[in-house]
């Protein structure tokens, strides 16, 4: 380590994306796991990466975090190339891998402390204790990591990943196997971390999780990044609202003609489903009620259903699979 | 009018600014490399690892070696009296020490790395800023500590039991260190290539052990018929055992410098190969 005599300059704010992925392609033998992925992650956001099993989420994260040495394209973390300047890039990155691991030789507290040590921390014990406490692992410090339950192992891995206070944190299915109560607590903690300036990229199969946490969402299918959208825009753009009306009598014939501008279909007897874009562009719901009123239709029941991220996700994947196959 | 989302909390200006500050600070920290501190932490972790199983990693090899020493030293020793002009127990100690050095150095690095690979804990090391050289130094360092400490205990106990084996201490220490480093590096390579416990056990049981036993731990090759003498000379471990024996007693069947040369070559070749494996990420980052 060179003994620099330059006084530390006051830290200025970092400009630009914290993660840049350009033209990332990765093959395992004959299998192409990633095709030309391009992505930028902005400081301070929570980004959710969604995709079915085998879509390539973990592979992408592994390329970024140094667990895959061979890939095409360029990746940089905070301006450091993850291959040419790997030591610097890794000092900034934290990873909670999808695969549970354990170290049968050590107690849980020891593994958390060691992890801080590898990143250069001199006195890691106190911090390790605090992190374990925050992750509801108090009382488990002396247990061998082998003997922790699956959900506890997961939380221990989160504690390890946070020891060096990474500015960019990857959570590969952080709540898999974590019980409902602790999951809520974990979500809370993820928001808290973001509040402290940590940028977070997570993958999940619980779409509710992405819907609740993420600022932006990326959907990956068979190694291709299909879309990246702000969550709100995604819900607006692709989200649908279905309004189901039940009426006392069938709709009059001539009214049906007026309703052509709406997207609707008949359900069961005297039941009609109307579909609206979530951002409520024309034709609108109030206009529909006006029309029905004019024709003297008496409504007995109204039911609305919003499409959720889950429906959007399913629809997008379906259309992608149709176009590519 | 948009329906409100229950938990809309997009990255505000404020969180974005605090994230930019955090990244800038993290960059500064990354620029002052903490790698050697991290190497030390990994080395300590590795030492703690074998200390947790000290019964198996330290006590058991010492006891086994002393058992050999007692059984062979006293049973054969009483009949052989002298070999190459020195008491038989003096002759025996360096051979047993070499056996122990090779085993401990190799087993320590290969098992530790292999188990970490199998249980996935190796990922914790692979995501750190540690360079291939730093990772190697931590693993080899701990293996050398284990091998040399057990070696020294054996040496001490043997001396207390009457062996007089301190001819060239400096040569002896250098020889012990090179042996431990060389076989620890070899262990790293084997751990990286191995995929099953069988594969990792293959080398010590079918290769290292026999070659060591046939390399003159218990006898001088001058006692063998000419044909077997010639065969023995093809065994590299023979030169290592005799080199250490030279350092400890001043007696050797072959030139000790050949042993030193072989060990240096082992360290260089295995060192380069281990570095290359970690540098390219073969088997570990793919
Ligand atoms: N080490 C590997 N060797 C060979 N193929 C691999 C390897 N890792 C992943 N794959 C393959 O690459 C593809 C992408 O896998 P990946 O683990 O990235 O998917 P994922 O999106 O994380 O899936 P999941 O939701 O199940 O975690 C899969 O077809 C998988 O079989
Ligand atoms: Mg995955």
Summarize the structure in words:
The complex is a heterodimer of chains A (325) and B (286). With 325 residues, chain A is an alpha/beta fold. Chain A has helices at 57-65, 86-92, 108-118, 125-134, 150-162, 180-195, 207-213, 231-238, 253-258, 285-294, 309-324, and strands at residues 19-28, 31-41, 46-50, 72-77, 80-81, 93-96, 168-172, 199-203, 216-221, 224-230, 240-247, 263-266, 271-277, 299-306. In chain A, the strands form 3 sheets. A 6-stranded mixed sheet of chain A has the order 6-7-8-3-9-10, with helices on both faces. In chain A, strands 2-1-4-5 form a 4-stranded antiparallel sheet, with helices on one face. Chain A has a 4-stranded antiparallel sheet with strand order 12-13-11-14. The radius of gyration of chain A is 25 Å and the shape is elongated. The model of chain A is unreliable at 1-5 (pLDDT under 50). Chain B has 286 residues and is mainly alpha-helical. Chain B has helices spanning 13-31, 35-52, 54-80, 88-119, 122-126, 132-160, 169-193, 197-213, 226-232, 236-249, 256-280; strands at residues 82-83, 86-87. Chain B has a two-stranded antiparallel ribbon. Residues 1-9 of chain B have low confidence and may be disordered. At the A-B interface, helix 2, helix 3, helix 6, helix 7 and helix 8 of A face helix 1, helix 2, helix 4 and helix 5 of B. The complex binds adenosine-5'-triphosphate and magnesium ion (MG).
Low-confidence stretches of chain B: 1-9
Mean pLDDT of chain A: 89
Largest sheet of chain A: 6 strands, mixed
Distance between the termini of chain A: 55 Å
Structural class of chain A: alpha/beta
Number of helices of chain A: 11
- Multimerization status: heterodimer
| Strand ordering within the main sheet of chain B | 1-2
Ligand species:
adenosine-5'-triphosphate, magnesium ion
Helix content of chain A: 25-40%
Specify the overall morphology of chain B: elongated
Number of strands of chain B: 2
């Amino acid at each position: 380590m060179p003994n620099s005599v330059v006084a530390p300059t006051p830290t200025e704010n970092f400009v630009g994306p914290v993660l840049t992925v350009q033209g990332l392609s990765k093959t395992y033998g004959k299998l192409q796991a990633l095709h030309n992925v391009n992505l930028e992650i902005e400081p301070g956001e929570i980004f959710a990466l969604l995709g079915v099993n085998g879509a390539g989420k973990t592979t992408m994260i592994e390329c970024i975090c140094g667990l895959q040495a061979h890939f095409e394209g360029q990746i940089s973390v905070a301006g450091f190339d993850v291959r040419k300047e790997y030591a610097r890039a890794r000092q900034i990155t934290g990873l909670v891998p999808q695969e549970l691991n354990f170290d049968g030789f050590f107690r849980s507290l020891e593994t958390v402390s060691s992890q801080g040590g590898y990143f250069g921390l001199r006195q890691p014990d106190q911090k390790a204790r605090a992190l374990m406490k925050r992750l509801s692992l108090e009382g488990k410090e002396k247990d061998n990591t082998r003997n922790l339950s699956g959900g506890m192992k997961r939380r221990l891995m989160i504690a390890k990943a946070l020891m060096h206070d990474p500015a960019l944190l990857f959570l590969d299915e952080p709540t898999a196997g974590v019980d409902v109560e602790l999951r809520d607590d974990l979500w809370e903690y993820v928001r808290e971390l973001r509040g402290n300036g940590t940028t977070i990229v997570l993958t999940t199969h619980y779409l509710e999780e992405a819907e609740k946490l993420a600022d932006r969402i990326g959907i990956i299918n068979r190694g291709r990044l299909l879309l990246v959208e702000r969550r709100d825009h995604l819900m607006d753009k692709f989200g649908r609202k279905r309004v189901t009306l039940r009426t006392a009598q069938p709709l009059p014939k001539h009214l049906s003609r007026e309703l052509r501008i709406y997207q609707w279909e008949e359900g069961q007897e005297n039941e009609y489903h109307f579909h609206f874009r979530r951002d409520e562009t024309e034709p609108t719901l109030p206009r529909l009620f006006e029309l029905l009123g004019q024709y003297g239709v008496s409504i007995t029941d109204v039911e609305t259903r919003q499409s959720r991220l889950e429906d959007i996700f399913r629809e997008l994947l379906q259309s992608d699979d149709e176009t590519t196959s | 009018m948009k329906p409100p989302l229950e938990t809309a909390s997009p990255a505000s200006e404020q969180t974005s600014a605090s994230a930019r500050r955090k990244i800038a600070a993290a960059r500064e920290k990354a620029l002052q490399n903490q790698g050697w501190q991290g190497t030390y932490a990994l080395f300590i972790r590795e030492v703690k690892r074998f200390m947790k199983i000290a019964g198996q990693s330290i006590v058991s090899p010492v006891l086994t070696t002393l058992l050999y020493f007692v059984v062979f030293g006293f049973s054969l020793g009483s009949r052989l009296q002298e070999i190459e002009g020195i008491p038989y127990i003096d002759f025996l100690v360096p051979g047993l020490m070499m056996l122990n050095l090779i085993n401990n150095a190799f087993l320590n690095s290969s098992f530790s790395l292999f188990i970490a690979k199998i249980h996935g804990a190796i990922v914790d090391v692979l995501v750190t800023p540690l360079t291939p050289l730093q990772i190697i130094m931590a693993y080899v360092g701990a293996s050398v500590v284990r091998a040399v400490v057990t070696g020294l205990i054996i040496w001490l106990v043997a001396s207390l039991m009457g062996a007089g084996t301190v001819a060239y201490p400096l040569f002896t220490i250098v020889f012990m260190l090179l042996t431990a480093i060389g076989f620890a590096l070899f262990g790293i390579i084997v751990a990286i290539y191995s995929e099953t416990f069988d594969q990792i056990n293959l080398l010590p049981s079918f290769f290292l052990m026999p070659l060591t036993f046939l390399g003159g731990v218990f006898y001088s090759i001058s006692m063998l018929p000419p044909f077997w003498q010639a065969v023995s000379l093809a065994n590299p471990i023979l030169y290592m055992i005799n080199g250490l024996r030279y350092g400890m007693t001043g007696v050797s069947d072959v030139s000790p410098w050949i042993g030193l040369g072989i060990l240096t070559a082992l360290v260089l070749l295995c060192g380069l190969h281990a570095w290359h494996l970690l540098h390219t990420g073969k088997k570990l980052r793919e």
